[in-house]
Amino acid sequence: MKSNAQDILYRIAQPSDVESIYEFEVKQKVSEISDEYERMMSVWTTSYRKESLEHYLKLGWSFLATDTSGNIQGFFLGQPLLFFDHYTQTLWVEYMSAINEAIATELMDVAYRLSREKYFQRVLVSEEIMQRPYTKSFPFQTWERKTHFLKTTK
Fold first, then answer.
1. Which of 40, 45, 75, 87 is most exposed, with the fewest beta carbons within 10 Å of its own?
2. 126 lies in a domain?
């Protein structure tokens, strides 16, 4: 898919994109941390750590926004949840990053339109993703289900 705004190309992220996405996000988020060990520790709990990227990218539901030179301008990590919360197909968008809100808007639109085209019933996003200042509105709804977890690690 191509967007006329700034000649941005949108495509499915591939496993071969792991390193590029990781470098893009580390540069944006933790480049100001000078100590290598501290930088590595800060990345360990993020959605864009390499193990996470490898998982999401092999599923085929994550998308990249690149400029005409192939430089990453944004991405989202997504995966289908099958038979979750009484719905046959739900797209979970785990994480989104973009250099500006126009690109973030296009990425959210890709997730929404693709899910509709593939007959998914819902797209789930975090509060952080939902509250971005998109350049167009999306019909977000609050999920009223109370959910709890059992911690299985120390």
1. 45
2. yes
How much is the pLDDT for 151? 92
Domain of residue 30, residue span:
2-130
- For residue 23, the model assigns a pLDDT of 92
Within a domain: residue 137? no
The three-state (H, E, C) secondary structure of the chain, written as one string:
CEECHHHEEEEECCHHHHHHHHHHHHHHHCCCCCCHHHHHHHHHCCCCCHHHHHHHHHHCCCEEEECCCCCEEEEEEEEEEEEECCEEEEEEEEEEEECCHHHHHHHHHHHHHHHHHCCCCEEEECHHHHCCCCCCCCCCCCCCCCCCCCCCCC
Beta strand 63-66 pairing with 8-12: antiparallel
Tell me what pLDDT residue 47 has.
87
Residue 146 domain flag: no
User: Which segments in the chain show pLDDT lower than 70?
Assistant: 1-6, 31
- Which residue in this structure is represented by tokens 């495509």? 11
Is this model's pTM higher than 0.70 or not?
yes
